[in-house]
């Protein structure tokens, strides 16, 4: 699967726009705008890097997410509906991704013996081997990318990002807090 072309955000608005905003907005609002622009640029850079990493291991972040779910389930398998919920995508998207993983011999799907309406996905031995290599390779890349940050820095960034998400969720009238996952049966 060829890597997706990376998208690039400009590092900020053009100078004329910055000047017009400086005349219109208080300093705190300009500072907040700078944070949002920096956050969006960093998020895009992270997305581009992770997409590139996944292209070199399992093909894409979505494929990695599915394979990771199957890998973590060990031999119990994962219902397709749980994959849909975990990825936050449509059944059709999961069906397409699962079909490709099955064609490549990385995963299987079988009818649930307790409820024939459900499909259960499992990782093949080939899929497990590829997933273990992907986890090791991507963990090394992640370690390298975040090496300049101490454990305290990582904790602080995580807390700040959580507060930013909460602020944006509140401003849009939505509650975008992570929902608890259903318990495995």
Short description:
The protein is mostly helical and 185 residues long. The chain is 62% helix and 6% strand.
Task: Describe this entry's structure for a reader.
The chain has 185 residues and is mainly alpha-helical. It folds into 2 domains: 24-145, Winged helix-like DNA-binding domain superfamily/Winged helix DNA-binding domain (Arc Repressor Mutant, subunit A, Orthogonal Bundle), CATH 1.10.10; 149-176. Helix content is 62%, strand content 6%. The chain has 7 helices and 3 strands, in the order H-H-H-E-H-H-E-E-H-H. The longest helix has 29 residues, at 27-55. The protein starts with 14 loop residues before the first helix and ends in a 14-residue tail after the last helix. The mean pLDDT is 88.
List keywords for this structure.
7 helices, 185 residues, mainly alpha
Sheet with the most strands, sense and barrel status:
3 strands, antiparallel
Average pLDDT level: 88
What is the C-alpha radius of gyration, as a whole number of Å?
A: 21 Å
Order of helices and strands: HHHEHHEEHH
Helical stretch tally: 7
Query: Considering the protein shown, what is the CATH homologous superfamily of the largest domain?
Result: Winged helix-like DNA-binding domain superfamily/Winged helix DNA-binding domain
- The side-by-side strand order for the widest beta sheet comes to 1-3-2
């Amino acid at each position: 699967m060829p890597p997706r072309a990376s998208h690039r955000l400009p590092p900020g608005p053009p100078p004329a726009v910055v000047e017009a905003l400086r005349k219109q907005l208080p300093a705190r609002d300009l500072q907040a705008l700078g944070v949002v622009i920096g956050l969006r640029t960093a998020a895009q850079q992270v997305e581009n890097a992770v997409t590139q990493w996944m292209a070199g291991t399992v093909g894409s972040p979505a494929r990695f997410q599915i394979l990771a779910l199957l890998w973590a389930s060990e031999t119990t398998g994962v219902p397709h509906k749980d994959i849909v919920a975990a990825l936050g995508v449509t059944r059709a998207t999961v069906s397409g991704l699962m079909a490709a993983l099955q064609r490549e011999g990385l995963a299987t799907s079988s009818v649930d013996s307790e409820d024939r309406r459900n499909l259960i996905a499992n990782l093949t031995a080939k899929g497990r081997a590829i997933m273990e290599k992907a986890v090791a390779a991507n963990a090394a890349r992640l370690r390298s990318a975040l090496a300049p940050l101490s454990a305290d820095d990582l904790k602080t960034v995580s807390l700040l990002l959580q507060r930013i998400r909460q602020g944006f969720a509140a401003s849009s009238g939505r509650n975008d807090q992570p929902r608890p996952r259903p318990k495995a049966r």
